[in-house]
Design a protein that fits this description.
By secondary structure, the protein is α+β, with helices and mostly antiparallel strands. The chain folds into two domains: 7-65, Arc Repressor Mutant, subunit A, CATH 1.10.10.10; 73-210, Umud Fragment, subunit A. 16% of the residues lie in helices and 33% in strands. It contains three helices and twelve strands; from the N terminus they run H-E-H-H-E-E-E-E-E-E-E-E-E-E-E. The strands form two sheets. A nine-stranded mixed β-sheet has the order 5-4-6-7-12-8-9-10-11. Strand 2 (54-57) and strand 3 form a beta hairpin. It is elongated, with a radius of gyration of 20 Å.
Length: 214
């Protein structure tokens, strides 16, 4: 017979469905769900793990993969700030959390192809991304298609240069064999110029911008 879930377990699952992920800190989880004793929280988390309803990933508590999507919502991996990530920033073990997004607000495609990062600075504040021509301001979250690694002129991309992740506009001129990564800003930013034979690591094409108000 299937063992019914306790109130604490239901509250933990509800928290994860709402937040996507939380740091695995028993006292903090207890505070959020109204449970006074961290050991009680730990006990019920272990039960949920045994039931394969939740999992621990890189210090985060997340829903099991089969529950990461629903008919209405997606939970997409979030990797933090774009322009200060190491070259390995987009590996699975660097995920900082998951962000819940309505499927109606998300571009069509395989969820496994996409990830999220947060823009830092104003070097792209007059960019025009997607059909809605959205700019990218400090703190905005951009949706990246990791499968799109062969950009066309005018595409907005995430690239890894000198171990750091950058958001720029891609331009390639075959006549001079140069790749130019361009900022689009109200302030003056110099372009990044590379030879076509340089090792440019393209981490995906930016397809949309989520405007996050603080």
């Amino acid at each position: 017979m299937k063992t019914p879930m306790s109130s604490v377990q239901n509250k933990i699952l509800a928290l994860l469905r709402d937040q996507g992920s939380v740091p695995l800190k028993y006292r903090e989880i207890g505070r959020r769900i109204g449970e006074q004793y961290p050991q009680t929280v730990k006990h019920h988390i272990e039960i949920l793990k045994d039931k394969q309803l939740i999992q621990e990933k890189n210090g985060l508590l997340v829903l099991n993969k089969k529950d990461l999507t629903s008919e209405t919502f997606l939970n997409l991996p979030f990797y933090g700030i774009a322009n200060c990530g190491p070259a390995t920033a987009f590996a699975e073990d660097r995920i900082e959390g998951f962000i819940k997004i309505s499927k109606n607000a998300f571009p069509k495609g395989n969820i496994k192809d996409f990830y999220l990062i947060q823009a830092s600075g104003n070097s792209m504040n007059i960019a025009q991304v997607g059909q809605s021509k959205k700019n990218i301001e400090d703190g905005d979250i951009v949706i990246v298609n990791a499968k799109e690694q062969s950009p066309q002129n005018g595409d907005y991309i995430v690239s890894i240069i000198d171990g750091c992740a950058n958001i720029k506009k891609f331009s390639y001129n075959p006549n001079d064999e140069q790749v130019v990564l361009i900022s689009e800003s109200t302030d003056k930013y110099f372009p990044i110029v590379l030879h076509e034979n340089d090792n440019l690591n393209i981490a995906g094409k930016i397809i949309d911008v989520l405007k996050i108000s603080n």
